[in-house]
Amino acid sequence: MTDRTPLPHSDPEPRVRMSGSQRREQLIGVGRHLFAKKGYEAVSVEEIAHDAKVSKPVVYEHFGGKEGLYAVIVDREMNNLLGRIVSSLTGDHPRQLLEQAGLALFDYIEDETDGFRILVRDSPVSQSSGSFASLIVEVATETDHILAAQFKKRGYSPKLSQMYSQMLIGMVALTGQWWLDVRKPRKDVVVANLVNLAWNGLSHLNAEPRLTTR
After folding, report:
1. For residue 131, which of 177, 198, 180 has the smallest C-alpha distance?
2. Please, what is the Cα angle at 119 between 198 and 139, to 5 degrees?
3. CA distance 115 to 84
4. Deepest in the core among 6, 40, 200, 207, taking most CB within 10 A?
5. CA–CA separation, 184 vs 172, rounded Å?
6. Residue 109 — very low, low, confident or very high, per pLDDT cuts 50/70/90?
7. Please, which residues have CB within 8 angstroms of residue 127's CB and are 6 or more apart in sequence?
């Protein structure tokens, strides 16, 4: 005789009711994790909605789609990193400023790994900002006036400070991108070596450098 006793089943997990701002923050957290793990192109609105335990229309309601959510996340990460670097620059000597900027970036990588992974990935084609290149440009712009003052003080043309800011920030940021996965040596050792290279180069600048291979 067949046992017709119904199989036990669990009721679906009740959906947590949130305010609009709470739901928005939840979606940002879910999206941030997914974009960092898989990249923009590999993440779908369906996946975001599934992980957040909401329907797709909820995602569209708050952000207009995946790109809108991504743009909000990137903007937050850019502001976070820029704020950390700018607020760290409290020294009155250029070498000290280099150390502070380098440590601020590596602290961010260590504390906000998902955020940095998003920043160093390629942005969607329609995004005019938020790429790793634009991050370097923005950080360099924020620190340019500090370098310009030091150039003027030491008899170099302050007109060159913007170019040197791009060089220095690019060097630090690309090294940070490499360190993101290897995590060796320790961040303080990496920053010390970065500053060693940058400072010893800056302290022996030629006023009018020329190429020697032509």
Report:
1. 177
2. 40
3. 13
4. 40
5. 15
6. very high
7. 67, 70, 71, 74
Q: Give the CA distances from residue 126 to residues 33, 56, 68, 105, 160, in Å, rounded to whole numbers and listed in that order.
A: 21, 22, 11, 27, 32
Place of tokens 């199989």: 7
5-23 confidence digits (pLDDT tens): 555 554 445 556 788 899 9
Q: In one letter, which amino acid is 206?
A: N
Asked if residue 105 has pLDDT above 90, the reply is: yes
Peptide bond into 158 cis (omega under 30): no
Q: Look at the block and give the residue holding tokens 């060796």.
A: 184
d(CA 199, CA 181): 26
Contacts of 191 (CB under 8 A, 6+ apart): 99, 102, 103, 106
Q: Which of 47, 176, 158 is nearest to 108 (CA)?
A: 176
* Phi/psi-derived region of residue 39, left when phi > 0, alpha when psi is between -120 and 50, beta in every other case: left
Asked if 140 and 62 touch (Cβ cutoff 8 Å), the reply is no
pLDDT of residue 144: 84
Residue type, 155: G
> Quick one: which of 16, 47, 14 has its CA closest to 31?
47
**Terminal-residue alpha carbon distance, the chain:** 96
